[in-house]
# Entry
Amino acid sequence: MPPTNPPFTAVDPVFFQPLLNSNCARNGYLVSPSDSADLPRLAARGLYVVAAGTLTVDFIESGKNISLGTLPAGAVGTIVPLGVRRVRSTGTSATVIALF
# Structure
């Protein structure tokens, strides 16, 4: 039986909340891209591709925005392992789920 209160070993770099396992997602939500608002709750640890299209994001730590170009139909069902705080509406036509 696992311990009821495991020690925390990692902290989210944006919201400084402890993470049980820094390599896995604990939850997710469908992203509504925005050029002005960060993702709600926690910054995403990865993006699950639901529908192909273009993708532009802002990274967690630097805040730099980068266009990842076109995610092809073959990318549907895959996880893009990037730490992002915003999915921009300008330059994004893909549908993604933020994993955190």
Remarks:
- The longest strand covers residues 53-59.
